[in-house]
Amino acid sequence: MTKILRNIKGDKVIWAVAALLALFSFLPVYSASSNLAYLYGDGDTFSFLIKHFTHLVLGFLIMYGVHKIPHHYFKGLSIIMIPIVLLLLLITMVQNTTIGGADTITNASRWIRIPFVGIGFQPSTLATVVLMAYVARYLSKIKDQAVSFKETLLPLWTPVFLILMLILPANFSTAAIIFSMVIMLVFLGGYPLKYISAILGSGFIVLVFFILFAKAFPGMFPNRVDTWVSRIENFADNKDTQEDYQIERAKIAIARGGVIGTGPGKSVQRNFLPQSSSDFIYAIIIEEWGFLGGVFLMLLYMFLLFRLVVVAHKSEDVFGKLLVIGVGLPIVFQALINMAVAVELFPVTGQTLPLISSGGTSIWMTCLAIGIVLSVSSKREAIIEKELNKEKEENPLEVLQEAV
Description:
Layout (H helix, E strand, L loop, with lengths): L1 H6 L4 H21 L1 H7 L5 H22 L5 H21 L4 E3 L4 E3 L4 E2 L6 E2 L1 H19 L7 H19 L4 H17 L4 H24 L7 H13 L8 H13 L23 H34 L3 H25 L17 H35 L1 H8 L1
Antiparallel strand pairs: 1-2, 3-4
Helix pairs in contact: 2-4, 2-12, 4-14, 5-6, 5-7, 6-7, 6-8, 6-13, 6-14, 7-8, 8-13, 11-12, 12-13, 12-14, 13-14
């Protein structure tokens, strides 16, 4: 372990924030999973804790391994991974069965089973990281070059829209987040505003046609469009319906929490709130840790955002800057959406709380993204260390005087 700690490179603050989030997650996950243990197991909550611990250990091993890869390698890796991601998304899309989730039956078109090990994996989360790296690579390639809209359609926007169209039928919220993050990244990357406007218009038209098609042929996408419409309608009106059950329970949990909370492990709403250990874990956190705990957690994500900006600003190359923003910002954005859903500032989306919620895919892909960010920051550290060593070699007398 000591040897591993000595070999850790990159922004130490990001390492600390990630570790703090992971350590904090054990208490709410252990508490929130108690109802799952009785409903879907033999009442043993410890097994859920072990499972979460295993996911985090694998996640941090991914983070450690990825942060050792020089970040310029991700240019080529993103190109290689795009067709692999498209294939995985296509396989999950054509599945017509359902699988049992932790709290309810989950649409199988979001998941794929890893052969031999039987672990469920959500390709859309991998697609987010790969696509943002791919877009960052292309933007760095055309930086300060005059390109026409037509020239960018095939190499830039075709992979984007293919991935979005494969995710959209089963997971509108993820597709919307990915599209928003890509638009944000191309804007920061200097892509012309008139081209961005054209893409936004095209995306809106495609979405409208998809909704009309799904309405005309409901058998092809059972219940998905109706679910989106229902969630938006329930969010817009003030009527309490059966569909509002989750958010109403989340609000009760938040109200019980007050300022300082009821105490760790003393949540009542965990026994009634579906997805209490994943999508709505923030409500359980506020119930047990209060308003202060909820604000503290939010500030951790905001501090992570600050460090992402610092790492991006210090990066020596354009690709590194865009890569950090591209893979790092969705983590914070997803966290804010999860929190906003819990306090009814946003319609229910099904997005987890990064590094806090239970679920292997979410944790692993968050760690993958953070590992990429750390890879960029470690390059900066290597340059500084090289410069310092060079100064020591050129001025050995000054180094000796400092030692004395």
